[in-house]
Design brief:
Elements lengths: L2 H57 L7 H9 L5 E3 L2 E3 L5 E6 L4 E4 L13 H7 L5 E5 L8 E11 L2 E11 L4 H48 L12 H17 L2 H29 L5 H27 L13 E4 H11 L1 H6 L3 E4 L6 E4 L1 H18 L5 E9 L2 E9 L31 H11 L3 E7 L2 E8 L1
Parallel strand pairs: 9-11
Antiparallel strand pairs: 1-2, 3-4, 3-7, 5-6, 6-7, 8-10, 11-12, 12-14, 13-14
Helix pairs in contact: 1-4, 4-5, 6-7, 8-10, 10-11
Keywords: Kinase, Membrane, Phosphoprotein, Transferase, Transmembrane, Transmembrane helix, Two-component regulatory system
GO molecular function, one term: phosphorelay sensor kinase activity
EC number: 2.7.13.3
Amino acid sequence: MPLGIRIFLVYVLFIGLTGYFVLNTVMQEVRPGVRQSTEETLVDTANLMAEILRDDFKAGTLSQNRWPQLLKAYGEREPKANIWGLPKNQVSHRIYVTDAKGIVVLDSSGVALGQDYSRWNDVYLTLRGEYGARSTRSIAEDATTSVMHVGAPIRDNGKIIGVVTVAKPNSSLQPYVDRTERRLIAYGAGMIVLGLLFGGVLSWWLSAALRRLTAYAQAVSEGRRVEVPHYRGGELEQLASAVEQMRTQLEGKAYVERYVHTLTHELKSPLAAIRGAAELLQDEMPLAQQQRFVSNIESESARMQQLIERLLNLALVEQRQGLEQRVAVPLAALIEQVLEAQMARIAGKQLRVEQTIAPDLSVIGEPFLLRQALGNLLENALDFTPVGGVLRFSAERAGAHVEFKLFNQTEAIPDYALPRLTERFYSLPRPDSGRKSTGLGLNFVEEVVKLHGGQMNVGNVAGGVEVMLRLV
């Protein structure tokens, strides 16, 4: 099934479920909302009638004056009102009054005079000083015959002497409920249709964009020269740029250039060590010290030869699924080798080196790559550490991993540069010369660490900068 159709089907499912739940929730709230509004109106009406009827009720003249005729005339009125498009041709309120015992003394319908209503909640609760309301069906089996009743107390000097109840059948509200529900359904259906149309257009556009990118990738695989598709921002533009970059690398341009820079950069370290040892040999020194520096020159020369051979094959590193060697590499001994190679620079800058790594602590990996990575870290630290500064090597086992840390005393790295330190060809000016390196050292270290299944973090700490390598 094409991706566009799958996206559209998921979109349809999402819109359908969302529309159903939203409409269902709103529909369920329409009827209670209308009834709540009506009940609030009944409360006001009942309390108004309680004040109007209080004096006549207190005097016992409700049934002897004009109130029965007024309520009867009220029940016969024809408002002929048009309420938001719905006609209203008769009044629907029923008003009755009960005394302190719950006996009906006045009824606008004329059917309950003299009856005992003291058990109905609208009367019972109101006589007790509480809010009295009830909803009762005229026909028990028919929910549409439900009638709302709201009572209000008639008071005499704070004492409740009677109750006025205003009743309204829910059937009089049904037309408004039905109209609201019909409108909600119509609007909801319209929104769902518009949403589906939008989803269809979006799916078609996405499918068309992916088809263009697929055709471009197929043309590249066949060796044909075609123009990369252009998109206006977003992930599709990034994907097209990534495919174009992949094409360039497969053609061998950027790929070869990158490793030429890497090779040049990596040759700097052993050449610097040989040059430093050669300069020191020009001065008089004990024979044992001379032998040590001669040995350094010999080992660094061998290292250069090995480095050239390895870096020529390093182009395959990123394509490898794993390491060529997996052996236990003593970390302390590896650090000693790296320090020995840079002893001339360390002595020239009069640095204090602190190494607190246990002799039996080992990591699993390729010794050559690990040595090159640590050598790059040390060279980078030496570039930024001032004369008389401190280098500190430490490592400890944390569960299944070893956390190696290299601290060098220096100025803090600017915040804007922290996220770019391992970016290829990005470099900061060296404090001594003001020049920048090729910006491949830390990038190379990160690649080696990732190949070993580890992580690399560089950050500012108190007094300097710390690099942490998390290795197996």
